[in-house]
Amino acid sequence: MGKLVWIIGLILCLVGLVKGRPSTFLQDFRVVWSGSHLRQISGGNGIQLILDRNSGCGFGSKYKYLFGRVSMKIKLVAGDSAGTVTAFYMNSDTNTVRDELDFEFLGNRSGQPYTVQTNVFARGKGDREQRVNLWFDPSADFHTYAIFWNHRIIIFSVDDVPIRVYKNNEARGVPFPKSQPMAVYSTLWEADDWATRGGLEKIDWSKAPFYAYYKDFDLEGCQVPGPASCASSTSNWWEGAAYQQLSPVQAARYHWVRANHMIYDYCTDKSRYSVAPPECLAGI
Ligand SMILES: *[C@@H]1O[C@H](CO)[C@@H](O)[C@H](O)[C@H]1NC(C)=O
Questions:
Q1: 137-165 residue pLDDT tens
Q2: What residues bear carbohydrate chains (predicted)?
Q3: What is the pTM of this model?
Q4: 107 Cα to the center of ligand 1, angstroms
């Protein structure tokens, strides 16, 4: 009996390893842009990104993933972060037909709310921005930001609170990212021509360098290159019946965010879309 428990434990442990959890920077990521501005902390379990007058920087996953859940804990630029943008996103890197799922954290003057912009690109078509003001100070502590993705639904969440949902609406002729694996990226850069109050608030370089911190990387999904059958396997946990739509608890939280913290939704922006795009009419 004791032996059986031990063997089951070993199997569970090996399955855990296959899923690559938990992951470290060295195991799963690489520098994509300006390694001199990127520093490992806590023995490689964390990373610090630096933005100064010379450069921003970025890192990305070594592999791509097709469906699954990716998350990391991030502590955003503290103090006067106006004009800075920290991003956490997935991208298929296929130019005009790219799929992309974006979190962009738009800095602000001290004491003003951080804004999270999300966007979804499918087959090269984006222009689906939504913006939410965070209900806490994301520079005071680490919070978990996650992208969940299966054949039916994509969910962006902050500390397990869904802030954005993009459903598979192929039946309405709306493309859904389902065939291109995506890599996971994060970057910190200057974008004071648009980021804060539409570009009115400029970056204050006297406050540089600006720092963002990352830890607890978790990449679960079908790794590419990897077994080709993985992405279509219904036995992956993220394809399970419980994950085909928001749970009642998730739905309640999502409605709370939309009612209290959403400040922009392309679906209701008549200056851009006189008729709301079809995915908007399908309901949240
Ligand atoms: C910054 O703060 C202003 C004033 O509170 C707010 O209107 C805006 O949504 C905030 N975020 C950005 C990115 O400008």
A1: 999 999 999 999 999 999 999 999 999 99
A2: 108
A3: 0.92
A4: 8
